[in-house]
Design a protein that fits this description.
The protein is built from six helices and 26 strands. By secondary structure, it is α+β, with helices and mostly antiparallel strands. The strands form three sheets. A 13-stranded antiparallel β-sheet has the order 5-1-7-8-9-6-2-3-4-17-16-15-10. It is elongated and about 80 Å long. The chain starts with a strand and ends in a 6-residue tail after the last strand.
Amino acid sequence: MQLNVTKTNLQKTLSAVSRAVSSKPTIDVLRNIALEAKKGSLRVTATDLELSISTYVGVDLIVPGATTVLAKTFIEFVSLLPEGNISLTLENNELKVETDKIKSKFATIPYEEFPELPQVNETCELIFKVEKNVFIQAIDKTTFAADRSGISQPVFSGILFEKSHGNINLVSTDRYRLSRYSLHLDQPSKFETLPVIPYIALEHVARLCADSEDDYVEAFLINKNNQVLFKSGRIEITTSLIDGEFPNYQAFMPQNTVCTYKILVRDFVDAVKLSNVFAKTEDSIKVVIKKNLSTDHILLSSKVSEVGEYQSELKVEIIKEEENIEVNFSPKKILDVLARVSTEYVYLDIVVHPRTEHRMAIFREEGNDNFLHLLTPLVGA
């Protein structure tokens, strides 16, 4: 293998795959990244066997070939090289990395020892194709609500892809909150049963596809339905699916709305942040939202006996108000969802749990029916 490539292009490609390098490899070659040079490009791949990231960069190819090299050292070394052209030459199981004034050699492991990873071909089944920016938004508005503790059932760390009237819903829950975003497809998916995908894999998809030159993301089902491959432009990301049955969240979706308020997001965020100054000192402290005597305000308050207390009136537009309410919520979780609201106003619905009759909150964006976030109260606090 022999080629020339610019430092800028190589570094960008190495950075893209770096997060898939195994931190606790079961075999030595998983510490490495794979380099495959052919047809005027260098394909760079990393994997931990659960997540794989592959992309390629255009090069001045002299001799095709392939090898693997220790990821951490190679990536750091390339990042410190001066701008300009870099020469890569595989010779006697060593990778020579040279510039005009710098010469170095890296030990390698044969390319044949690197796991064979799937690529898009005629055996892959297309699940869906969607606009890149829409998919990135859907990921941002759902993955934050997945369980990140690592102590719950694995299925709660995944995002359900649910078929709905020819479109696809992305659904996440950590059992205390739930986010759902509806993707509208140009062509309905032919699959009746769709996978549960790890949230961390989808966050990699969003990060990498944001820089893709393609305007679309495609998702393919591969390897007898136990992996999904996402492709956008030069980027291919493969992830294993999560085993287990996602809970039937529809059975717990409220049908009865007792109050609806339209609130300026900026004012809502400011009020909750002030409340959180007190509330964050103890996990059990929360924001209280209740009807005020004023016709166009709700009251937000928090109290810690050792610290003090806070109270603020928040101006709202009352769309519906059927009862006096007093509901306790985590300020952090409110701020989490408000950070994902992309409209100037947000709708806050106070709804009734179909079984417990607890009051819960639903957040909706103004003029966007695709996004919904359900937040359960802090009961008994």
